[in-house]
Amino acid sequence: MSRIGKIQELLKSSPKDNFLRHALALEYIKAGEDAEAREVFEEILTEFPDYVGSYYHLAKLLERIDETDLAVQWYKKGLDAAKLAGDNHAYGELQSAYEDLIY
Q1: Is 99 helix (H, G, I), strand (E, B) or coil?
Q2: pTM of the model
Q3: Closest CA to 54 of 62, 15, 67
Q4: What CATH number should be reported for the domain holding residue 89?
Q5: By the 8 A CB rule, do 50 and 85 touch?
Q6: What distance in Å separates the CA atoms of residue 85 and residue 82, rounded to the nearest whole number?
Q7: Based on the structure, what is the number of domains in the chain?
Q8: For residue 29, which of 52, 58, 68 has the smallest C-alpha distance?
Q9: In order along the chain (103 residues), what is the average pLDDT of each group of 10 residues?
Q10: Domain that holds residue 91
Q11: Which of 63, 47, 57, 74 is nearest to 23 (CA)?
Q12: How distant, in Å, are the alpha carbons of 20, 29, 72, 87 from that of 12?
């Protein structure tokens, strides 16, 4: 069974486990399945906007597929969420990626 399959199996018993969902999205990226990864990241962040770790990966994915305006929006949302959570490390990573994109 693939890593994607294993994570999907685990999600059957814990469908809202954001750690597993985030891991699934990352595996989708590794497999070149960007649409699936995007969908999972967007679901996580729509349902749990305080799940700071997913903002960076979603915005990077959007950058890669040339959806720059949307990537900027997600970076900004992530910066707000990281600030609210007091997560200075995530804030710094998001700020750096955001600045690299817009400057």
Answers
A1: helix
A2: 0.95
A3: 62
A4: 1.25.40.10
A5: yes
A6: 5
A7: 1
A8: 58
A9: 96 97 98 98 97 98 97 98 98 98 94
A10: 3-102
A11: 57
A12: 11, 21, 33, 30
